[in-house]
Amino acid sequence: MFGYVTVNKEELKLKDFQRYQGYYCGVCQELKERYGQTGRMTLTFDMTFLAILLSGLYEDTTKEEMRFCGVHPTKKHLCLRNEFTAYGAAMNILSAYYNLLDDWQDEHSYKSYTAAKLLRRSFKKVEAQYPRQTQAMKNYLKKIHACEQENSKDLDLAAGLTGELLGELYVYKEDIWSEDLRALGFFIGKFIYLMDAYEDRKKDEKTGNYNPLLFLEGSPDFDKTVESILTMMMAEAAKAFEKLPIIENVDILRNILYIGIWVKYDHAKKKAEGKQEK
Known about the structure:
- The protein is mostly helical and 278 residues long.
- The chain has a single domain (9-265), classed as Farnesyl Diphosphate Synthase.
- The protein has 10 helices and 2 strands, in the order H-H-E-E-H-H-H-H-H-H-H-H.
- The protein has helices at residues 14-40, 45-58, 83-107, 110-129, 131-150, 155-170, 178-207, 222-242, 250-258, 263-277, and strands at 63-67, 77-81.
- Strands 1-2 form a two-stranded antiparallel sheet.
- Helix 1 (14-40) crosses helix 2 and helix 1 (14-40) crosses helix 4 (110-129).
- The radius of gyration is 19 Å and the shape is globular.
- 40% of the residues are buried.
- The mean pLDDT is 91.
């Protein structure tokens, strides 16, 4: 369930896209320096959003660097780093580790099992530094597996569990902003879960994996119903976001929340419509 919380490059000013890439590079560098090349391979856009969000909220001093890297070996590019790019990297490791274990449990993927073993040392570092977030992840997996075993038809239950998890990951520390950050993470988490279920429903139908949207598919106006639910989730997320006093990089964050997060949905919808036409 990664890769949904990203920018829409076409709707972003060049200077803002360069800053977005700078934070992405910053999270990548944190992964490399703190957790090695294996950790770097877990990099996702989702935690880049979190790093930018927390940087804007807490107005932390961000260090600007110009760097070469494996992806850009011939030209230096902007790299932005602070305590929140480090936090984003840690949450990236935590999410990736448990996602791999979940794949192993659900699909008996030896590739995922091997990758999880390689990440275990990095995970232990994160667990020691962020026990609350780690416990939230453990609780989530226990509850979501129970939900899957019951084959629950309750969309809100399964999506809500993911929302609760992301809400905890979005809270960097308990303070006056934690309630709004939890709400923001909660509704983005629900969106991500349902979006992932929407994309994977055909595959899950074949494999027999749990997917609550399969109980709705075939009903009248299925796509319209899903789109309506997703829209409600992001409307609530936007409401929580706008309560936060963020000025720095706010155009990047709004691009992600109002436009970018819908990119994969639009792609999945067009793909489904194309199959139906054929």
